[in-house]
Design brief:
The protein is α/β, with parallel strands linked by helices. It has a single domain, classed as P-loop containing nucleotide triphosphate hydrolases (Rossmann fold). The chain contains 6 helices and 8 strands, in the order βαβαβββαβαβαβα. The strands form 2 sheets. Strands 4-5-1-6-7-8 form a 6-stranded mixed β-sheet, sandwiched between helices. The radius of gyration is 15 Å and the shape is globular. Bound molecules: guanosine-5'-triphosphate and magnesium ion. The site of guanosine-5'-triphosphate (GTP) has 21 residues, from α1 and β3.
């Protein structure tokens, strides 16, 4: 059985913890605590260390899913988790453009530490004021960047599974020698 470690990152409220809860076949190791200050305006709890879940593909590949905290004050966890990852997905809420800057800062943080395949998962596309996938991609990585982008609803198992398949495919394509 092959094992891959995937990191799910992104700003507060993008849907990282939900994403892992939706697909994990084991009870998720969760470290959500009561939110304070600005985060509390958005939601009741926030991840302070990590989420950990597991997802198996056709009895041949096990994915270990690690969710990061969204708040940058816990960036020591970003560092710890990304250094052992094979690939990562950056979740970005399409209806919250004020968090795009944070999302870019997370990408910079990760890319300063590792050179691994990544993709953007755009959540909350169903919400009012949502930007299009193309505009979110442009806002996060700019033009001429080949970072794949996919729509994800973290509450829907089929959607989360589809994004994991896409991340896996991207990982495999990126590892093929030219
Ligand atoms: N409408 C809608 N809601 C979504 C979607 N994706 C996630 N959500 C909701 O958005 C919220 C996200 O909360 P969390 O999963 O705790 O977010 P998080 O990214 O782990 O946040 P932190 O741990 O605080 O950084 C949950 O209420 C989800 O149900 C989506 O595509 N559409
Ligand atoms: Mg969380």
């Amino acid at each position: 059985m092959e094992v891959m470690r995937l990191v799910i990152t992104g700003p507060v409220g993008a849907g990282k913890s939900t994403f892992i809860h939706t697909v994990s076949e084991i009870p998720v190791v969760s470290t959500d605590r009561t939110a304070t200050d600005k985060t509390a305006e958005l939601k009741k709890t926030t991840t302070v260390a990590l989420d950990f879940g597991k997802f198996t593909f056709e009895d041949s590949m096990t994915l270990y899913l690690y969710g990061t905290p969204g708040q940058s004050r816990f960036d020591f966890m970003w560092d710890l988790l990304i250094r052992r990852a094979h690939a990562y997905i950056l979740l970005v809420a399409a209806h919250r453009p004020e968090a795009f800057r944070e999302a870019r800062q997370i990408v910079t943080f990760m890319n300063q530490r590792v050179n691994i395949p990544m993709m953007i998962g755009v959540t909350h596309i169903d919400c009012e004021g949502a930007w299009t996938m193309e505009d979110v991609q442009l806002a996060i990585v700019g033009t001429g960047n080949l970072t794949p982008v996919i729509a994800v609803n973290a509450n829907e198992k089929a959607s989360v599974t589809q994004s994991l398949v896409a991340l896996l495919e991207h990982y495999l394509q990126s590892s093929v020698p030219c």
